[in-house]
User: Fold these one by one.
Assistant:
Number 1:
Amino acid sequence: MSTSNNKADGATGPAVLQLVPQLNSGGAERSTVDLAGALDRAGFRALVASEGGRLVPELEALGGEWIRMPLEAKSPLSLLANARKIAGLIRTRNISLLHARSRAPAWSALWAARRTGIPLVTTWHGAYAADLALKRFYNSVMLRGDAVIANSHWTAAHMRANYRLTPKKCVVIHRGVDTDRFDPARVHPERAVALRRSWGIAAEGVAVLLPGRLTRWKGQLVLIDAMARFARDSAGAHLHAVLAGDEQGGGYRAEIERAIHGRGIEHHVSLLEHIEDMPAAYAAADIVVSASTKPEAFGRVAAEAGAMARAVVATDHGGARETVLAGTSGVVVPPGDAEALADALRWLRDAGPEHRAAMGAAGRAHVLQNFTLARMTGDTLVLYREVLAAHSAAPG
């Protein structure tokens, strides 16, 4: 275990330790970093334990402190070892509250919290599989702390439907979007033009963007199947799809490449690595797709695209039913249905830029009203204070 040094050591307020396996590009990681910045601004000491990742420099720039810990490990011995490390940190760094954002670190955090007598908050970020009793028990750690945050109303309903264990306190706090960073007015047109040029998309073409880590349930193959239906479509503007995200291993990237080449749509689909300048990527796109075949607990892509005033096509399940206003800010389609996805893309293409812009404007208004970063961090800080106050007032 190692730590980094930054201004978190100089803060005087309560110390909060967030625990997340990695600090790369997922919704849990992004929320961790965003909240660390809010904690620092509010006078808390913001510590984050994780394996590390590309977001570490940003975490530290926002006033958080990164503590290296192998929180991806899931074996019982690893969970116990991490519990001892967390308990040691609680004592040496005078930590007042733990916040676990994934199941493996939540088990370690639960044991450490009980050993040291401090409260534990969890956030339920994903739609965890609950088909087996052992799996449900493993998942149930997210309900065993002092409070659980559901990142959407769908997530809260999923918890109630699949688990008998009732948490002490459950609140819905939607994932927040940084609407200052994801603001079309702040993206210089040349940034978007340069990206479109690098993607090989002509000015009159229609760019379709599916961002997200390369894992099967994110639906990249569904979009490829949909795009294959446009290969010989000479009507309307040319559609070009861009798939961008981190590889997750298991040979899925190679499978995507084979699917593109096998259908002969290399000139219609590009497969890229993770894009750092996501605001520019959304600005460069005409349509943004979230094609997840399993329910997204929240659906960060749809919300960020909405903040960037882009028309969205999303699958009709999970948090997308909250982030996308069907028929107003975007189109929803059945999960895994390539024909329906193709029809939605064709309709948005043929509707023209003015109609897509109107849908995008409705999407940004929806995000500004319901899914801002300020709202997420503010509601989380309120919960922290309530949990800490209740813990202080408890007898013994």
Number 2:
Amino acid sequence: MTSSPTSLPDLAPARLLLVEDDEADAFLVRELLAESDVPVDITWVRSLAEARSLAADPFECVLLDLGLPDANGFDALRGVLDSSPEAAVLVLTGLDDEQTGVDALASGAQDYLVKGQVDGSLLGRSIRYARERKRLDAELRRLYRTEVQAAENARLERGLLPQPRFEDPTVNIVTRYRPGRDAVLGGDFFDAIETSDGTLFVLIGDVAGHGPDEAALGVCLRIAWRTLVMAEQSPDRLLPILQDVLAQERRSEEVFATVCMAVVAPARDELRLFLAGHPAPLLLDDVPVQLPDELVGPALGV
């Protein structure tokens, strides 16, 4: 059933679901809304089962009588909250059951109204305020999820981009990380460490893809690489072992990683370059030189 109250020019009609088994009370609610300044499109059902059958409809507000033929009290409220989680729920209570309405607020309802103490103006204001509170609640939840994701990204970034560990004052390593598409964290990782004999190991890698799974795998590969370097594994063994680590830790066989590793001699007069799927870098001399692609071997995991 629908009603066509006088609308305000700046307020869009609200889709409202009235869950009320008493026909007289349902009629009264429609009359009160007709007197209010809130434009609504009302759908009336008599039971929780009927309300659940309309769960796919995007109702903005639900007026709920807690005494239904197939659910009573908080069972009715929980059923509506489960089936219409995006809707603002206003509970209708009897004169002798006001405490239940108060308790309903703690259980997820936006407001409660006492039958017999409601006029059109109060009902209209309650619907407006309930819709606004629901919107603010949704915004706060979205903000919270964003903050949690940002904190998780920051933790992963610290794992992907650790503090370089070396003693040579003639070496200066500068890093900057800028997330790519839509600021989604990816699987790019970096590390630099100097061994006890003065050999400097530098690593840049990228797990294909964007998201927390790729970032976590990047952290895993970087930590494994640093552990192997600190254990003084031969440079020629590092990437084959990383290949085995990736094969064990990746979520599917399609996942691969590109890696560039440089091993700089203690005298800083010699550099060995290992390229696994990573583009050949530039040699920054008086005139920058692009190293040949023939140096590049297959990516890890391919």
Number 3:
Amino acid sequence: MILLIILGVGGCKPSATPGELITVDVSASYPQKELILQDFMDVEYIPLESNDEFVTQGHVLAVGNQYIIVKNWHNDGDIFVFDRKTGKGVRKINKKGQGDGEYTFINGVALDEENQELFVNCTPAKKICVYDLSGNFKRSFAHTEGTEYYNIFSYDKEHLIRYDASMSYKDGKKREDRGYHAIISKQDGSVVRDLYIPFEVIKAPAAKMGEGLAVTSIRTIIPNQDYWLLVETSSDTVYSYVAQEDRLAPFLVKTPSIDPEVLLTLGTLTGRYYFIQTIKKEFDFETGRGFPKTDLMYDRQEKTLFSIVVFNGDFVQQQKVDMYSNPINHTIAAFQTVAANQLVEAYENDGLKGPLKEIAVGLDEDSNPVLLLMKYKK
């Protein structure tokens, strides 16, 4: 796999699609369907340990085989390392600052357990800082000139895969002759593979009024079991990237849309269900609200699109599950955090069952959140 990347530094053009190509009509209405998460995913709960040192709001950044990486929602610089199996706190890292080995903001983290390294993406400073898992600084490298990284994932032992979100400020302009998705070196950040998705004009996930700019978050890189899915809002096609074969292929196509433009991204994918989300490119600057989203699901067995709601079967009362926001890696499809006070209240009202009920016994309202992992069924 590495050899293919090193030998193919030139542009990578999409090839023909293997198998079915799904078309999503973003202006259509689809029948409603409800699913129970446990019917199609294996579910694991991990209560994150709470003590005087480990108090976190539970913004999970990465989950590996050994560790869980978490930060707070506010910008205090804390990075919490929890044990993946037990949820016990291992250590807290904080390198917030203006120096070479420090970050001013944590926009994302890629966890590399094979090399025992943590890659912290700091978009304001346009750099990635690399630490060992004890928090010792090892090196840093800048974002490629003219770029601004958004999503980063560990791609293999020697590379990251990243997305350049600088186009958010270039809506309506002609694209640059390069890929906005790319595979980069973990050592110095150099681009070793442009993943070129064809389009002509930039359609950014943003709205502008005068000097005001509102940008919505869209997942542009989705790890699936055997490949990567690459979302580019400027294109009507989502592509799959099969690393072992070093090729891009069309995976999903949306119908064109205008006034308002409707963008599309993907969430969790299973053997049967593909979770798809559409986002209207409209924003009300007076109310501060906008970019309305619609949750869809393609059922490969029925070959039909649905408007979808997924519920967690361990709640007696219906509790929705987010299938879109948090893809993780090639073995764990996605995650969600459940607030301790919500679990305590549900437990006191006989609103829990199964393993979640057992976990709630040991919680109080000030406990750290419980991590829900959604794993592919074996």
Number 4:
Amino acid sequence: MKAPVIMQILPRLDTGGVERGTVDVAAALVAAGKCSIVVSSGGKMVREVERVGALHITVPVDSKNPIMMLKNANTLADLILTYGVDIVHARSRAPAWSARLSANRCKIPFMTTFHGTYNFNNPLKKKYNAIMTKGDRVIAISDFIRQHVCENYNTPHEKIRVISRGIDLDIFNPSVVSAERIVQLANSWRLNDHSPVIMLPGRLTRWKGQSILIEAARILSRPGVRVLLVGDDQGRTRYRRELENRIRKNGMEKIIHITGPCRDMAAAYMLADVVVSPSTDPEAFGRVAAEALAMGRLVVASDHGGARETVEDGKTGWLVPPGDPNALARALNRALDMTNEDRRKHSQIAIKRIQENFAKQKMCSATLAVYDELLHVE
């Protein structure tokens, strides 16, 4: 009997939650004895796809040019027939249009994962987004996204499966992070043993809320605290300069440091007393909050979106009104004032919650179950 062949399609394999989830599911498919194909326009994570035993095929599916998207549909149809693909799983809008055309042509199931809210300010943009609701099954990465899809795209509830993103607990596990890794990172960021550390991990982009944290730190006015903005500007040099100017204007150069990207986020979390996710727009899931909780850190996050599903207000962290630096400063004060015993209790509760609800293995098992649903539909 032929092993099922599953084809995942996404624009590129550079970095991010979509890409990481694709690789994780590809690995799970191979481990389950299924054939895994990943189609993208390439990127540095292609090696990871191949390392787990999946096949990567390079197609320019990142293009939003309508002519190229039609050409991609023809290429994908040829690949479906050549490799005997049983299910096509699209993870982004532009490739989803091509993928659906090819899947319909070849009469095989088509499914999607709805990874974000996707802005729509006109009917044409909304129609473009709606391709992500046209799968025979639609995976929503949080209950917040499920509700968004139902309310804005009238997607039937019975088609949607809520599968949260999975945290790799082999990486984000405090027991596996060596003291040497933590010390090396602390030295590179010039941290001392006595300064409480507030950390905001995330790419430097306005909606991630770096400016909100800078203002909250000014209001906090707490001696000795260090605030780390950990993330890549990804070419947003104007926004980075804006943040630097704001820090300088407030005279906080010795307190707030923009570190740039970090390759060892597990060690970075271990340096933090409090991890902040002050996004002004709702996070579809909130990977930073979940990773930080898996490491036993205290978390303060904006009270909207996926954060409401990962952070238990008052138990594993605090939820504050988005865009409110005063509320953020108050929550940070509460976190920094906690006793070591209270921190230990919070840490145990947080780690257990992530392990039970948001582990990578759970995400992969649930995704493979959706594939099995479609394989057995008459």
